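Quality-control log, excerpt.
Job 1 of 2 completed; input and output follow.
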Amino acid sequence: MNETRGSGKRRTARRRAGRPTSEDSAQVDERILESAARVFLKHGFARATMEEIATRAGITKQTVYARFSSKKVLFSALASRFSKIVFRPEQVENISKGSPRAFLMEFGSEVMEVLRDAKPQQLFVVLAAEARAFPELASETWVQGPGRLRVCLRQFLDDQIALGRMSIPDPDCAVEQFLGLLVGPLIGRLLFARPTYFDSEERAASYIESAVDLFLAGYLTDAGRQACAERAGGLARSASEGEPSRDRLPR
C-alpha cells in the first residue's frame, strides 16, 4: 500500500518536472514571433500561414494556436513587440532633460539608431501596408510607438517653453516638424524601396545634428541659447580634449 502510494508520488513528481517552465514558455513564444516576422516579411499578412510559421519555428501548428488563437492575434502581438523594440519609448522617456540641444540630439539618436536596422525597416513596411486592413491594430501600434514618442517630445517642449528657453506658438505642429525632419527622408525611401540615405553612422549623426540645429534655429530663445552655451561650457571643461559636445549653439 505504502509502496503504491510512494510510486504515485514519484510519477506526479516526474510529470511536474516535465512541465515547461515559464522560461521555456517564453522561449517558445520568442521562436514563434521570430518565425512570424520572417513569414510576414516574406509573404505579407494575407498570404502568410500559421502552418509555415509553425514549421519555421520547429513546433506544431497546435502549439502556435495554443498561444496565439489566430493569425490576426499573432500579427497584433508582433506589432506590439515591434513598437516596443523599434520605437523604444522607455529609453526616450528616460533621456535626461538637459538643455534643448542635448535632449534633441539624444532623442534623435535613439530613434535613428533602430530605424537604420534592416529588420525593423522591413517590419515597418509590412505594418504600414496592413494598416488600412487592420485599423484597430494600426491604432494600437501607433499609440504604443510613434504616439508615445510624440507625447514625450511634446512634454519636453512644454517644459522648455515654461522655462522660457523656447518660443513655440503651436507645440503639436513643432512635434511633427521635428519628427518630419528626423525620419521623413528615411520613411519615404522605405515605402518606395529605395536605398537608405543614412548608409553610415557618421552620415546619420551628421544628419541628426543638422536637423536639430535647423529646428532650434526657429524656436530657441536667448535664454535657451544661454542654457545650451552653459552646458556646452561645462562639458568642455570636464570632457577630454577633442571630445564633441552635443550642446554647442546651432549654426
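Job 2 of 2 completed; input and output follow.
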Amino acid sequence: MGSREFFRIFGVSPEAEKLDLEIWIAKLHPDDRDRVERETSIAVATGSTLQLEYRIMKDGRVRHVYSEGHPETNGDGDLLYRGIVIDLTEGKAAERLFAETQAELSTASRMAALGELAGSIVHEVNQPLTALKTSAEACRRWLSRYPVEISEAVEAANQVVNKRKRDVAIVSGLEVLAEEAQANLSFIRIDGVILEVLGMFRDALEESSISVRADIDEGLPELRGDRLQLQQVVFNLLRNVIDVMKGVHGRPRRLEISCHADDVEMLTALRDCGGGSGTNTNDMNRLFDPFFTTRDSGMSLGLFRSRSIIEAYRGRIWAERNEDCGLTIRLALPL
C-alpha cells in the first residue's frame, strides 16, 4: 500500500496497478539495480532498517529517490516494511546547478585575480628587465676593456642570473592562477618563502621608501604545503601593504614582518607602521571578502584568494588595527 505521492513518484496508477517487488525492481536504474537488490536482501535477512538512495527510470527519464523502511511483523509473523519514499530529483538538480555555478564563479574569480595580479606586477617585471639590461651592458663593457676586467664582468653576469631568477619567481605566481594546478605538497620553510617574496618586492619597497624590519625565529619547523600557494599568499599581502603605504605622506613608511612558532601553530604578522590604512571598523571585517576594495581601481581578489589558501590548510588569517597607527595582518598555520 502507498499514498498517491508514492505511486506518482514511481509512475504507477494506484487504481490500475499494485507496486509489488518485481515492478519496483524493474523501475530501478540499471546501474543501481544490483546494489539496491543486495542491500535490500541484507536488510530483510537481518530484519534491520532499510535506507537507500537510488535512481529509477520514469517515462524514459532518470529520477532520484530516497527510501527508508522500518521492519514490522504482522499477525501471521510475516516481515513487513513501513516507511517513506522521497523524490530527490529537483533537489539533485539544484545541487548540480549550484556546483556548476560555484565552478564557474571559481574560474571567473581566478581569472579576474589573474588579471589584477598581472596588472599589478607589470612594474615589478619591467624593473628587473631594465636591471638585466643594465647589468648585461656593464658585463659587455668590462669584457671590452683592455686588460679585461674578469672579476667585474663575472659580478655583472651573476647579477643577470640572480635577477633572471627573480623574474621567473614572479611569473610563477601567475602560472598558479592561470592553470588548474593541483597542490604540489612538500615540506617547506615559511621563513624561506617570506624572504623569497621580499626579494621580489625589493625594488618596489626601495622605490616607495618603505623600510622593512624582519623578526623571524631561527630554526622554525617545516610546514607541509605548496610552496607556490604560500608564495602567492605572502605576495598578495605584501602587494596590498605597499599599495596602502604609497598613500602615506609626512611620516616614515615602515613595514615589520615577524614569524614565530609554538607547539600548536606558526604565526606570521605583517605590521604596517606607516599609518597608511584608512580602513574603518566595518571595512576591516570585509578585507578578505571577494571583490571588496577600498581602492579606486582593481577588483581586490588577492586577499580573498589568500584567505582561501590559508583556510585550505586549516589556518586563520585576520586583520587588526594597531594602537598607534596602521594595521597588522596576521596569519596562523597549524603545525
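Post-run check on job 2. The longest strand covers residues 61-73.
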